[in-house]
Design a protein that fits this description.
722 residues, seven-stranded antiparallel sheet, elongated, disordered N terminus, 40 helices, two-stranded parallel ribbon, alpha+beta
């Protein structure tokens, strides 16, 4: 690009002018002028570990969207823009001119600097800046930089839009001079002309004999050139290239894909054997790539799992937490990787970090154990046997909020295994989890999930959770507009509903207490929410158990408006949602006040459809709902027949087991599909046309066979059909 005179010369046309307002400070002590360093010390690790920097770049300050460590333009990019005029003090106009010439999109944001003359990690400034993005999405910044800032942290921001062109005047010149004094632009040479933006070192003469010379980092390399430096660079160049690749991989899926496509995985894994910054940067790059499911298999095949496990054993403290993060990412929704990580011997190192690691290492170890245990029963047992339960429970009370969240999430997945529930409770987890429900945010969400799993099918834990006074905070967590604090996430509310569902099962006193605490309208409200990724099983299940053989709650749930959304859930593709909705409607239909609403909501057709296509539990619940609707209401018995329910009900009886399995069918109190189907046929057949249809479908023989197999409800059906 052609570099023109910086502001202060004779410029007559309208243009963008640098202004002091283009500079933002992280705090009052951050000097707007002074020594600046970009990237900040310790980048990219400081982005997650430095609270001040993270807050400055976050929503309440710069409102960053994407962040990348970006060098000067490559030789290829500079050649493409060779005809574009570049003003050293006008990144805004430069970006527009590049867009006009090359069609590359404009990215608006800030350069983020650390105040180098302040205490390390305490003060930061940001300079408003625009740059461009190639068609591939790679960022290119053509505005010349100071010689000591060839790699800069660029942050895309929604707060970088406002900039207007102005005519040259004394005021604009004064403002420009004041802004230039704050740094960040290429300084003027003694002759008044700007220094060259990217002075090139003389090309090295190629040495005929091998090996080829080690390469140095120039600061303008693209991804492919950075990968080459990983293989052939000097030790210093390798470290800097690894840092640049780590920043690129952390910026997004496209950038990580470019690193993988350029062959970066193998040299990064080799750098894990090095020591110092290069090892840590390489590990961070691999951790970022492992965060994408599309790279998990290739990373594992290249040896990332044993390499990361090795770092857990012998790496520095700063690298061990990254190694745990690599393993945690590789384990996400990958059963083969979950199995391979445990087989590689990762558990002792991860458990050790829980007790001895720094806060970031503890957090990453919890994260790894959380993902290793997710829906993997053998790993759930192995993690508990490795001694993880007690240190995880200890972190619930002693850890930072992020660590508490990860520890509770790990315990939630461990508690999904029935053999772990007692050990987790014995480690006093319940007493530590219940106060977390009132913390809000991630800790409350995962605490609710852990209590949900601990309470599932475990009477002792259910009693302990109630004794720990968990009911009130669980109900409070369901609120979308709490009296204080931020509302809980949808997932947190689902977990709270699931915990209440498990606690109220067949527990009349708890059904009373939870309903009295105001849970019913909150649970009903959850059924109608259309949030992305929302699940409805826990809310419907909680209403099912609250209404089970509890007439007052049945009426309250119906009055709260539960029937229409439950009928809608019957039509959703989720088998578990259909199952829970049918179960809730079955219990609600036992209350006469709800019957008309259920029929009016159009629930009969989907209930009948479930008789033939739903899960075993869904078929049982659907048959039970039809039986309860017909009970005592001749018009509904007629409607059941009109909905074509009788043939599939008879078909359910024909599927009934005989002989030694027949005992499982006896009694309607949760005994199975056949008992519910026979009851529905008995009650529907009080309507004479229905009885005639049952006879014409061969129902007498079917019912007689079921009665002989021990389905006692078939006797009443035979009487009514005959």
């Amino acid at each position: 690009p052609r570099v023109e005179r910086a502001s202060g010369g004779s410029v007559s046309m309208s243009r963008y002018w640098p202004e002091p307002s283009d500079v933002r400070r992280s705090n009052e002590s951050a000097a707007a002028a002074g020594a600046l360093a970009s990237p900040p010390k310790g980048w990219p690790g400081c982005f997650s570990s430095n609270a001040a920097l993270k807050a400055f770049m976050g929503k309440k300050a710069l409102n960053g969207k994407r962040v990348r460590l970006t060098g000067t333009p490559s030789a290829e990019d500079a050649s493409k823009a060779s005809a574009v005029t570049i003003e050293p003090d006008d990144p805004f106009g430069n970006a527009e001119r590049v867009q006009a010439a090359l069609g590359w999109a404009i990215v608006k944001g800030f350069v983020v600097y650390e105040c180098a003359d302040q205490a390390e990690g305490t003060s930061f400034v940001a300079h408003l800046r625009w740059w461009n993005a190639r068609e591939s999405g790679v960022w290119v910044d053509f505005t010349p930089r100071p010689a000591d800032a060839q790699q800069m942290v660029l942050l895309e921001s929604a707060h970088a839009e406002a900039k207007t062109k102005k005519e040259a005047s004394a005021a604009t010149a004064e403002a420009a001079a004041a802004r230039l004094a704050l740094g960040g632009f290429l300084t003027q040479a003694a002759n008044g002309k700007p220094a060259p933006p990217d002075a090139k070192a003389p090309k090295q003469q190629s040495a005929p004999p091998p090996p080829p010379p080690r390469l140095d980092l120039k600061g303008s390399e693209g991804v492919e050139e950075l990968v080459l430096l990983l293989r052939r660079g000097t030790a210093e160049a390798q470290g800097k290239a690894a840092a640049a690749i780590a920043a690129a991989a952390a910026a997004g899926a496209d950038e990580a894909r470019q690193v993988v496509g350029a062959g970066g995985v193998a040299p990064l894994l080799l750098l894990l054997r090095a020591k110092g910054d290069a090892q840590e940067h390489a590990a961070r790059a691999i951790m970022s790539m492992a965060d994408s499911p599309e790279h998990q298999a290739s990373l594992s095949a290249a040896g990332a799992i044993p390499a990361a496990v090795g770092l857990l054993r012998s790496g520095s403290l700063g690298v061990q937490d990254v190694a745990a993060g690599i393993l945690g990412n590789l384990a996400i929704q990958s059963e083969p990787n979950q199995t391979a990580i445990v087989a590689a011997g990762a558990l002792p190192g991860l458990v050790s970090l829980l007790a001895k690691g720094a806060a970031p290492a503890k957090e990453q170890a919890c994260f790894a154990l959380w993902n290793l245990a997710c829906q993997h029963p053998p790993n759930q047992l192995a993690i508990a046997e490795a001694g993880a339960v007690r240190p995880l429970v200890a972190l619930l009370s002693k850890g930072t909020p992020p660590v508490q969240e990860e520890a509770a999430g790990a315990l939630m997945n461990l508690a999904a295994h029935p053999d772990n529930k007692r050990a987790i409770a014995a480690a006093n987890a319940i007493a530590a989890l219940v106060p977390m429900l009132s913390q809000g945010g991630g800790p409350a969400e995962q605490a609710a999930g852990a209590l949900m799993n601990l309470a599932s099918n475990n009477a002792l834990n259910q009693a302990s959770i109630v004794k720990a006074e968990a009911l009130s905070p669980l109900v409070a967590l369901l609120q979308t507009a709490p009296k204080s604090g931020e509302p809980a996430s949808r997932r947190a509310r689902e977990y709270a509903a699931g915990a209440l569902m498990n606690l109220c099962l067949k527990q009349k006193p708890l059904q009373d207490r939870v309903a009295a605490a105001g849970a019913v309208p909150l649970l009903v409200g959850m059924l109608s929410e259309q949030a992305e990724g929302a699940q409805y099983e826990e809310a419907a299940g909680a209403l099912t158990n609250l209404a089970d053989t509890h007439e007052e709650n049945q009426a309250a749930v119906g009055k709260a408006g539960a029937v229409p959304p439950l009928a809608a859930l019957l039509r959703k593709p989720s088998a578990s949602a259909q199952e829970e909705a049918a179960g809730t409607l079955m219990n609600l239909a036992a209350c006469d006040a709800n019957k008309d609403a259920i029929v009016s909501a159009g629930a009969l057709p989907p209930l009948v459809a479930l008789l033939g296509s739903g899960s075993a539990a869904a078929r049982e619940h659907a048959a039970g709902a039809l039986a309860n609707l017909a009970n005592g209401r001749p018009e509904h018995a007629e409607a059941v027949g009109a909905a074509k329910a009788l043939p599939p009900l008879l078909a359910l009886l024909q599927q009934a087991p005989e002989g030694k399995d027949a005992a499982a069918l006896r009694g309607c109190g949760g005994a199975g599909v056949a008992a519910r189907a026979a009851s529905a046929l008995a009650l529907a057949s009080l309507h004479a046309p229905n009885a005639a249809e049952v006879r014409s479908e061969g129902g007498v023989a079917v019912l007689a066979t079921a009665l002989g197999a021990g389905v006692s409800e078939a006797a009443a059906a035979l009487v009514n059909v005959s």
